[in-house]
Specification:
Strand content: 15-25%
Shape: rod-shaped
Largest sheet: 5 strands, antiparallel
Number of helices: 9
Bound molecules: adenosine-5'-triphosphate, magnesium ion
Structural class: alpha+beta
Order of helices and strands: HEEHHHEEEHHEHEEHEEHEE
Number of strands: 12
Amino acid sequence: MTQYGYALLGLTAVVAMLVAIMTFAVLKFAAGARDAKRHLAGGADSAILSAALQEAVAKLKAQEQAMSARAVASEQLSSQIVSSLTAGLLVVDGTGRIEILNPAGQQMLAVPAAVAGGDYRAVLASVPPLVEAITECLGTRRAILRRSLQIPGADRTTHLGASVSPLGGREGHGAICLFSDLTNVVELEEQLRLKETLARLGELTAGIAHEFRNGLATIHGYSRLIVPDALPGQYRPYVEGIRQETEALGKVVTNFLNFARPERLQFSRVELEPLLRRLGEDLQHELPAGATLDLRGRFADVDGDEVLLRQVFGNLVRNAAEACESAGVRPAIVIGGDVDARRRACRISVEDNGPGIPESERARVFQPFVTTRSRGTGLGLAIVQKIVVMHNGRVGIGTSPAGGASVEVTLPLAAA
Ligand SMILES: Nc1ncnc2c1ncn2[C@@H]1O[C@H](COP(=O)(O)OP(=O)(O)OP(=O)(O)O)[C@@H](O)[C@H]1O
Ligand SMILES: [Mg+2]
C-alpha cells in the first residue's frame, strides 16, 4: 500500500466515525423528542381529569345543600302543622316516653309546655281516662276510635273525644293519639235536652194545672160566700182554713203555670254588675237582720232578658238566706264573679254559709216541686234552671268556701 492509500484509508475511517457519531446524535434527538411529546400529552390528560373531578364535587355539594335545605323545610312544615293543629296530638314511644305533645294538646290537658321525654303516666296523671286509653292501645296494639272521655275538673267536667292508634318506631311500638275538646258540644246537647224536657213538661202539665186552678177558684169563691159570723163558733176556724189553703194552692198553681208557660224573652245587652248591685240593695230589706250580701270579683255584659236574670239571682239569694236561717246562722252571702275570656263566659256564684246541699241532692233540687221547706213550692231552682238554659247558659251546685252551698251560673258573654 502506498502512502496515498494509507491516507485515504485513514480519511475514510474518520468520515465513518463522524457518520456514526451523527447517526447516534440524530437517534438520541429523535428519542428525546418522542419522550417530550409523550410527556406533554400525559399532562393534558390529568388536567382534564382534575377539572372533571372538581365539577363533579361542586355538583355533589350543590345537591347536598339542596337536599339539606329541603329536609329543613319539610321539618319546619311538619312542626308548623303539629303546632297549628287545633286538635291535640300526642305521640308516645314504646317505652312510654312522650315524643310529641302539641300546644293545643298541652292547653286542653292543662300540662306544662316542656313535657317531651317524660313518662305519659306521670305527665298525664290529672287525666286518668286518657292514660287508660293509651295504656290499652299500647297493650292490645289495637286502635281506639272516637272514644268519649270525661275528665272531672275543679269548676266543670271536660269532655274529650280521643282516637288512639298503634305506631311502629325505633323504641319498639308506640301510640299516636288525636283528641279534641267536646265540652261545648256536650253542654249544648245537655241544654237542648233540658229545653225539650222543660217544654214537654210545660205542655203536659199546664193544661191540668189550669183546670186545677179553676176548681180551686170555685172552692175559694164558695168559701168566701160563707159568712163566718153566721156559723156556730166551733165551725168558724174551718172556713178560715179552707180559705187559706185554697189561696195558698192557687198561688202554687199560678207559680207553676208561670214556670211551665213558654217564656217570651226580651233580649238586650245586660250589664251584670249594676244589675246585681241593684238587686242586692233591693233585697236588703227582705233579708234577716244582720245578714250581709257582698259582691266580689269581675262581671261582664251578657245578652239577655234583664227581668228574668234578676229573677234568677233573686231566687238564689232568697234560697241562700232561707237555708242559713233554717240552720240558725246569720246569712253571709257572697255573689262572686269571674270572666273566662277564652270560653267567652261569665261565671256568677251565689255562696252562703248555710248547711249546703248534699251531692246526692244536687241534681234533684232543680226538679219542680222538690222542696224541704214547709212553705216552699219547690219551683225556685226549676225556674232558675229554665231561665239560665233559655240564655244558653248552665247552672250547677258546689260547696262554698264557708262550707255552705255555692250555686254557679255560667252565661255566655255578650257578642263583641
Ligand atoms: N242555698 C241553699 N242551701 C241549702 N239548700 C238549698 C239552697 N238552695 C236550695 N236548697 C234546697 O233546694 C230545695 C229547692 O229549692 P227551690 O228554690 O227550688 O224551692 P224552695 O226554695 O223550697 O221553694 P220556692 O219555690 O219557694 O223557691 C230547697 O227546698 C232546699 O232544700
Ligand atoms: Mg227557693
